[in-house]
Structure formats: structure tokens, C-alpha cells
């Protein structure tokens, strides 16, 4: 962390970690993940604040993803008006990638998919908070999310399974897939 001047400051950092699993069902897997990030914070006076951040993630599964975000707020003694926009993502976990890979015979159920892409979305929201006093607060928020490559378990016949080594041709399966784009709005 650092202070540029009393109204402006920053935080930067590096993150690294190893995800691993040892499972008789999902097998033994490990992944390395790393990220660089930076956050700028500004107090612009009269209760107005803005924060910008950027994060560069690298993962053995999905490669490199740039994640920008910006948040702004104005606050008085009774009201706060706030808005934010940014990108987010979620990689498939070991269950979504390798479920039932380690069993000798699978006659039905959820089957992992190591070829999944990371889910990604763009998110925007804005809101107003009113502090009425005596511990009473009224909050309202509107939001929009554009979500791509959503991961879900999808009924898949044996003939369309990408890996059949331990599957019964008579089984009923749900394969983890990047199935769709979802746009969500709400208040």
C-alpha cells in the first residue's frame, strides 16, 4: 500500500497458490495459479469516492484473464449513491472437471469435463442508501450481469460423452458443459 497524497492512495500485490486434489473418485490433480493486482483509491472531496482496480490472473487451465473494475460513491450524512462496473470470472472446480473419472464403472450420474472454459461476466450496478436513523436503513440497487460460458450439468446420452472408458452404455449421465449465456437484470 502507498499514499500518493491525502486524497489518493494505492495498493498493489502478487498472489500465487497451488490447487490440488487427491481423490479416489476424481483422481490426483494440481494446478498453479498466479495474479498481479493494483487498486487506486481517490477521496475527491464533498463525500465523493472512486476506486479503480485491475487484476491480471494466470491459471494453468484457462490462461490469462484481465479483470478491470471501477466503483464510485457519494455519501452524505443521510444518503449514499453508489455505482460499480467490472468483469468477473470463475474457473471450473475439480468436481466439474473430473467427477467420476476414478471409478472403475459408472452406470449413471454427473461426469466431469476437463475441457471446460472459465465462466466470465460483465457486471454493472447502481444504488441508493438512505440512513433514516435509529438503526433503520433503506437500500435500493439495480443491476445487470452478462454471463458467458456458464457451467452446468447437462443430460447427455452415452453416445455423446467425450470420454467413455468407465461408462456403461445403458447409463444416464449429466456432463459438465459450458452451456449458455445468461443476461440478468434486477432491482
Question: What share of the residues lie within helices?
Answer: under 10%
Strand order of the largest sheet: 1-2-3-4-5-6-8-9-10-7
Oligomer: single chain
The tally of beta strands, per DSSP, is 10
Structural class: mainly beta
Rounded to the nearest angstrom, the distance between the terminal CA atoms is: 35 Å
Q: Please indicate the percent range of residues in DSSP E strands (runs of 2 or more).
A: over 45%
Task: Write structural notes for this entry.
The protein has one helix at 94-98; strands at residues 2-5, 8-23, 27-45, 48-59, 63-75, 79-90, 106-111, 119-133, 136-156, 167-186. It contains one helix and ten strands; from the N terminus they run E-E-E-E-E-E-H-E-E-E-E. The protein has a ten-stranded mixed β-sheet.
State the gist of this model.
The chain has 187 residues and is an all-beta fold. The chain is 3% helix and 74% strand. It has 1 helix and 10 strands; from the N terminus they run ββββββαββββ.
Features:
single chain, 187 residues, mainly beta, 10-stranded mixed β-sheet, 74% strand
Task: Map the helices and strands.
Layout: E1 2-5, E2 8-23, E3 27-45, E4 48-59, E5 63-75, E6 79-90, H1 94-98, E7 106-111, E8 119-133, E9 136-156, E10 167-186
Parallel strand pairs: 7-10
Antiparallel strand pairs: 1-2, 2-3, 3-4, 4-5, 5-6, 6-8, 8-9, 9-10
